[in-house]
Amino acid sequence: MASIEEFDPLNTSVPATKIEVTVSCRRMAGGLIYTKIIDCFSLSLFPVVVLYVQGIGTKEWREFGRTEVIENTLNPDFVRKFVLDYFFEEKQNLRFDVYNVDSRSSNISKHSFLGQTFCTLGEIIGSAGARLERVLSGIPGKKCGNIIFTAEELSNCRDIATMQLCANKLDKKDFFGKSDPFLVFYRSNEDGTFTICHKTEVIKNTLNPVWQPFTIPVRALCNGDYDSHDFIGEFTTSYRELSRGQSQFNVYEVLNPKKKGRKKKYVNSGTVTLLSFKVESEYTFVDFIRGGTQLNFTVAIDFTASNGNPAQPTSLHYMSPYQMNAYAMALKAVGEIIQDYDSDKLFPAYGFGAKIPPDGKVSHAFPLNTDCENANCVAIEGVLEAYYECLRTVQLYGPTNFAPVINQVAQCAADVTDGSQYFVLLMITDGVISDMVQTKEAVVNASSLPMSIIIVGVGPAEFDAMEELDGDEVRVSSKGRAAERDIVQFVPFRDYIDRSGNQVLSMARLAKDVLAEIPEQLLSFMKSRGIEPRPALSNSPATHITVHL
């Protein structure tokens, strides 16, 4: 078991939500040219779908599972589901291959290939009604039909447990006082190891502590297995035992193995009593996405002179013909994940801290595409193109002011507070903020809006001042007013660079950390405003589909 000193509540990962993906295919007859004819009087197929997943930072595909084989159909609706762990902060690449089963071999390569498609789990969940339809491809010059995915969140992933515990007659540990007790929860893993999943507050100088009630997702306690054991200090229980609530069965002896082996008359080191326990269901991030909530992604890039001359290889903005610079990597890492949850794929992109043409005035919120009426770029590739073009036309200058861009996005967020949209601002910078006072005020004002801010620091500078904005420990405040919610996440990109030079892995590590808090930040806004997710959008197929091959 891990020692108590190893516990870091900010880095303790909660098991992912589990998503159930259902697969159907339509109009598969075109692929029959490449299949063996099983029934000479019929052109029916015996289709099966194979799912492959791709590891983070690798190009290798691993088979995850297969549907059942359905006989004699060109339009199969498969019953067997794929159940996947879902991480919003990861780009989870999926590949679906369709085959016609024309022998008894379990080797999939022995069967006839009918087509394939690629997508991410985020694309399925982020599509209207969590329903995604794609054209199958892979057979040159032939129509292979369509494949349809629908996603559902497993119901037991939305349960949260609220409990309260107390202890009596604990051992005295402090030389001049009593003890400062607290509880640590450990969840057992399938391999016999233990993962810390919760720590209570410390109660000072007492042998009879009563801890505050706390709430924790059930999946964090037992990962959906209601009989797995949780280590609490030095006694064991299970989720099922806890769920019985307060009773004579939920008074636990606290045992100290060392004392038990040393003292023959040792009984226990006190008892812990469960005072209350209840389980409720709450709305999840997936509920809001399936109900149509869109993530609006905005980018702001630092064009101050401290980045160095973009024409020089030492510049943080240097455009190497061989690899992306840190700005492009951060933008691509975060943007490629968030774009799955934005239906129009139009992203406003701004720069700050540069002199812009034609008059050479310094701007702290200029559109990268030079269109002052419409700063939208088409998809992440469009943002990257506008960024590269902007480097050729503006003069890097200064200072590094954050407040103008934050206020600009906040104005947009203030116009849509009904839960239909949530705004995510990515700011990439190389140095210390020049307008910290104004930025703090902007963050405090934005904390009451449907908005989150991600700040990525690039380069070797010290970013200590940035930690003031990241309210994990202490909420940022301005003019005596504290932020309503913690909406800022700051990280220095250098902490995520892969030593072997694998840019894909570096980007995946960055995205995983900076995006991990977005779902909870979205939920905290919705909860604070009493907003419930709308019913899932219709899963019915469109009445007319135009396919271009």
TrEMBL record:
PROSITE patterns: C2
Protein name: C2 domain-containing protein
Molecular-function GO terms, alphabetical: calcium-dependent phospholipid binding; metal ion binding
Entry similarity comment: Belongs to the copine family.
The keyword Kinase is assigned to this record: no
Any one GO biological process: cellular response to calcium ion
Membrane-spanning segments: none
One cellular component term from this protein's GO annotations in UniProt: plasma membrane
Keyword list, A-Z: Calcium, Metal-binding, Repeat
